[in-house]
Amino acid sequence: WQQRIHSTFARKVRKKELTFEDGTATLDFPKNRSWRLFQIAFILLNLPSLTNLHDPDRSHETDAVADLLWFATGGGKTEAYLGLTAYILALRRLQGEVAGRRGDYGIAVLMRYTLRLLTLQQFQRATALICACETIRRDNLGKWGNVPFRLGLWVGNKTTPNTLAAAANSLRERNLGGRPSITGTPHQIMSCPWCGSEIREQHLRVYEAPSDIGRCVTYCGDNLGRCEFSEAQAPREGLPVMVVDEEIYRRPPSLLIATVDKFAQMAWKGETQMLFGKVTGECPRHGFLSPEIEDGKSHPARNGLPSVKSLEHGPLRPPDLIIQDELHLISGPLGSMVGLYESAVDELCSWQVDGKNVRPKVVASTATIRRAPDQVQKLFVRKLDVFPPQGTSIRDSFFALQRTVAPESPGRRYLGICAFGRRYPVAMIRSYVAHMASAQVLYEKYDHLADPWMTVAGYFNSIRELAGTRRLVDDDIKARLRDADQRGLAKRRIRALEELTSRKSGTDIPRILERLESVFDKATEVQRAAERKEGKQPSTSVPFDVILATNMISVGVDIDRLGLMLVAGQPKNTSEYIQATSRVGRTDAGPGLVGTVFNWARPRDLSHYERFEHYHDTFYKHVEALSVTPFSARALDRGLSGVMVALMRLWDARMNGNLKAGELQDTDPLMPKAFAQLESRSENATQDAAVAQRMKDMLDRRRDEWLRRVHNQKDHRLGYKPEGGATVGLLEHASAKDWELFTCLD
Description:
Blueprint: H1 2-14, H2 37-51, H3 56-59, E1 65-70, H4 77-95, E2 109-113, H5 116-139, H6 141-144, E3 151-154, H7 164-175, E4 204-207, E5 215-218, E6 241-242, H8 245-250, E7 255-259, H9 265-268, E8 281-283, E9 287-289, E10 298-299, E11 308-309, E12 311-312, E13 321-324, H10 332-348, E14 351-353, E15 356-358, E16 361-366, H11 372-380, E17 383-387, E18 412-418, H12 424-446, E19 456-460, H13 463-482, E20 497-500, H14 508-516, H15 522-533, E21 546-549, E22 564-568, H16 574-581, E23 592-598, H17 603-610, H18 612-617, H19 633-651, H20 670-686, H21 689-711, E24 717-719, E25 727-729, E26 732-733, E27 743-744
Helix pairs in contact: 1-5, 2-4, 4-5, 10-19, 12-13, 19-21, 20-21
C-alpha cells in the first residue's frame, strides 16, 4: 500500500504534476493500491514454503521446488515478488530467534539479475518498498525491533564503488566539477522514492571509518527537511540504501540486489561470507566482523560517538529467499557459470534447525522461456512449478485474459517495413523521418496526449549498426525533418539524442533513465523558454527525441510513457524480440507501435517479412529452448577451482583469511565435506553418475596441486591472492595467458 502510493506520488512530483505540499491523500484510493489476481494467488501459493523452514517444497535435497512466475511482459511480476519480499522481512522479525540466530540481522532476500541496467531499475523500485517497511518499523519499534530495514546494491565497481574511500573520492571529484572517475559513483538514486525530491551529489555523505560510523549515506534532497528520509529527520541514516561493497559486508542489508557475475568474488574476497550470515564478532560502531576485516578491538569517543569495544557474535540467519528475475537470461556460457557457482551459494545459504537441513526458497520469473524444467534442474537442483498453470485455452488462463486491441484496451501493433531494391540506410532514414514527423503532427494538434509517440526508441542488434544510425540521425534525418512539412507532415527539430549501450558508464545510466521520464508538453516548453530568457537554469530537462539502444533495453526498463519503437532488422532470438518490443505501449496512455525495418539483402530478415503476420500471431511458440551445462567438462575446467575455493573459504572462519590458503592440512575434514557436497550436487543435477566421477577426479587433481603448493612454501607464503612481495597467490586472474589449474574468474 505505502510503496504503491508513494511510488506514484514521487513520479508525479518528478513530472511536476504534484508538489510535496499536495501529499499522498489525493492518490490514496483502492485502484492505486490493489493487487492483481495472479499476484495475490502467487503470494498465497508460496506462504507455506516461506513460513515453514522444513517444508519439503523448500528444503528437500532433490525434490525441493523452484516456483516460476511466467507472465506476459508488463503484467506486474515485480510487484508479486516484492510482496513475497515484504512478507519474509516481516516474518523474520516476528519469529525472533531461531536455532540461536536472530531474525533482525542478516540478509533475508537475495535478488539477482544479469544486466546492470535492469539491476539499477529494479533497485530504484525496491527502494520504495524498503522505505515503506522502514516507516512502519519506526512507528512500532516494540514489534519490529531497532535494526533498520535496508537495501543493498552489490554490482561491479564500474557502477558502484567497492570502498568508502573510493566513494568519498568520487563525490569529491564531482563536487569540484572535475572529470568523473572511471570507477562507479555512489549517486545511484536521482530522486527520493518516497517524496520525489531531486537528489544531487551534495545530498550524499561519506562517514569514513574508524573515526566515524563507516557508511555512505544518501539523504532525500528535500532541503526543508519535511521528508522522513532527509538529513533533518534521519541523521546518519537517510534513505535505507547501501551501494558501497565495504558497508554491505559490515552491515548486511535485509534485501540485497546483485548481478549474478558478482558472485565470482566469493573465491577472491573472504568478506563475502558475511552475506551468508557467517560473522565472528561485532563492532557497535562499524558493524559485523569476520577474519578478513581489519578493525581494532576498541575505538575512542570521537565525532560525538561514544567509545566502543568489539564483542564476539555468533552467526546470523542466512538468506531465506532467492529471487532470480528474468530467468531466460541465465543461459549459454553465463548460465553454465551461474549454475556452477550456485553449488556454493545454495550450500552457504543452508543451515541446520532441529537437526534438519534448511535450504533457501527459490522463486524465478520470466515472460519468455522454453524447456524451463531442464534449465531449473541444472541451475538450482530443484523441480519446477510454473504459475499460472496452463489452462485449456491460450487466451484465458483464469489469471490472464487475452483481449482484442480496442480503444478501451490499447495494446501493441507490429508493422513490417521492407524496401526492396533500396539501400538499407535509406529505408532507415525514411522510416525515422516518417514516424518522427507524424508524431509532431499529432503533438501540434493534441499537445501532451501525443507524448507516447514523441520519443522514438531505436533497437539494434549490434553497436556497429547503432553507431551507423546515430550518424544518420545527426545528419540526414535531422536535415529531412527540417523540411518534412513539404511532404505533408510537420517540421521537427531534434534537440536531444541519447543511447543506452554498454558504452555508457554506470554514472550516466541513472541520469538517462530519469530523463526518459520527461514528457513532451507545450506548457512546460513555454516555461523552459521563459526561464532561459531570464538567464535561469531550466527546472525541467528537455525530453529525448530519440533513444538508441542495444539489448540493454530489452528487459526491465519500465518507462511507461514510451509508445514508439523502430527495430533495425530481426533480432537473433524471438525471446529478445518479444522482450525488447514490450518496452513500448505498456499503459493505457496510448497503444504501442513497433516498426521492424527489414534488410531485404538478408535471407533471415526476408523470411520473417514473408511470414510476418503468422509469426507475430504465434511468436510465443517460437521462443528458443535454452541451454545450460554447468557440469560439462569445459565449464568445470573454467569454473570449478573458483567454486571449490569459495566453498572452502566461506564455509568456515578457519579457512577465511587470505594467508589461510597456505595453512591447509592433508587431513583437514573441511575438504572431503566440500568435495562430497559438490559431487552429490552434480549427480542430482544431471542424474548421471559419470558426471559425479568426473567431478571427483577434477577435485582430487586440484586438491593435490593445492597441497603441493602448501608444502613448497620455503621463501614465500601462500595466500588466496598475492599480498606484498612475500605472499604468492594460489588463485590467478584470467588473462591472455594460458588457463592454469587455479585460474579463477572475477
